[in-house]
Amino acid sequence: MINSNSTRTPTAKFVSGLETADNLPVAQNPLYYAWRRFLGNRGAVFSGSILLVIVLMAIFAPLITPTSYEEQKFLTENLSFPSAEHWFGVDDLGRDFYTRIVYGARISLSIGFVAAAFSVLVGLPLGALAGYYGGAVDWFIMRVIEIFSVVPPLMAALLFAALAGGGFVSIVIIAALFGWVQVCLLVRGQVMAFRNKEFIRAAQALGATPRYVIYRHLIPNSISPVIVGFVQAIPLAMMLEAGLSFLGVGIAPPLPSWGQMINLGIGIMFFYWHLALFPTLALAITVLSTTLFGDGLRDALDPTLKG
Amino acid sequence: MVGYVIRRLLSVCVTFFVVSILLFVMMHAIPGGPFDATEMPLSEAAKATIMARYGLDQPLYVQYLKYMWGVLHFDFGIPYQSPGETVLELLGRAWVPSLVLGGAGVLIGAPLGIALGLMAALKRNSWVDYLASAIATLGLTIPVFVTSMLLILVFAVWLNWLPASGWGEPRKWILPIIAYAAIPLATYARYTRSAMLDTLNKPFVTVLRAKGLPERKIIFQHVLRNSAIPMVTVFLPMFIGTATGSIFVEAMFRVPGLGAYFVSSIVTRDYPLEMALILMITVMFCLAYFLADIAYALLNPRIRLGGKGTK
Fold first, then answer.
1. Which residue has the higher pLDDT, A273 or A23?
2. Considering only CB atoms, which chain B residues are within 8 Å of A287?
3. Which of A26, A92, B19, B228 sits at a 20 to 30 Å CA gap from B164?
């Protein structure tokens, strides 16, 4: 359970080198201290930069790839191995595999970000309500979360995917369906910690409605767990997308998805290893850097959340 | 404590029924049916007979009530994809590979993870510590089918030491067991390390040291015992999670286990098998969490001797 983070404010005073001549700490935006803590974490900075490179590659994919992702321009060189001309080789349908991998980052990242945004959209209000009202509201939301914790998520996701028929939108919805739980729990913990603080009591005593207190005071104070929850939901959604596409119920061809390419690659890996290796590495590096970046962000924004 | 146990058991039952209703509705909402003519076209009359035979012509709530009545008598019906046996017989057969591979994965991975976490905690900031952290991070973040793929590529395709897939002979079990072992190894390395460090910083350890107890005795008799609680409670849910088979590992290594049957049951709309699998695993998870809570209460003297419930 996440406890109150009363320790957070004092740490600011002890960041070295910030005292002015008369030895008083300079008042700084809390984000400034978070930023400094983040920069102090070499692993997080490194994985953050890798993630940034992957994001830039995804955004500028048309500029750094020779063809479009579905253009069968190299049919005569089908399945050829990596070379100077085709960095990752050519796939079974005559498409440049490097191009497919780069465009795969677009699919993976966009599903990760959009699904994480939806997770926050659902988890934030529910967590705030559960934390603020407690009692029956909290009980009900926690029972729903309990159901999500005992049903094997992949089996349920597979069932949903069969129901919704795969595709970008349904993958995003399924990922959000499982991603909101973590955000909700983080926000709930934060709101519960702040619910009984003096400034909330004062606002209530002055006649502020619950709606006002939640929007004006509790949600702004939950911004760190929300950011953390958002970033941590991204790799989960990416893994879900890759998994469902691997099983053939996710993103449908010709859209390039790493999971789908792994599924193709495993069938012919004994002859054409490159078709299995590159999508696997791309997925591993992306998920790993996103997770480490998220962990670093969590430690920087709110050291009390470290698990 | 007794009241707590009863409350928890009741909540397991409620969860079971809620999950079963949701599943039943969802499953039948998926377009298509088990006897749609794809491979063997059936005449209308023959199809109607089969539908009636399996009760699929009745309204959904009747089907649900009938199904649940059967479940209460441990009758899970007959799997459409293999009508010669009952669902329970099929599950018993399919569970063997999952249990062997997943179970072995946990039983190998968990002790290794504990040992790694222990060494990391005792030699803090040494190379063992960094290795343990690296393994824990990799094991917990890299999806299992990526691990499997890399294992297959290295050991089956490039080195050609081990077979890439299949189930028959024990040689084929090695790679999937390693893939399964990665998660318990990583989880336990991290849990053990943080639990040990937590205990090592407690004042009573300082007292023991001041009293001149040998370090070995402090570690094994006092610190380890006091760090064991989170390690014990996490075991059962993890065992269930792994020993019921992973859809991905079984798909990667072509193992005919529970995960593989689940995928085929979705594809062929094999309602009885689908229901039985998800319900079974859900109940096992409920019970595992429940037993973990009980174990936590029993192991923790503060709760056991206090005589109060855990929550």
1. A273
2. 141-143, 146
3. A92
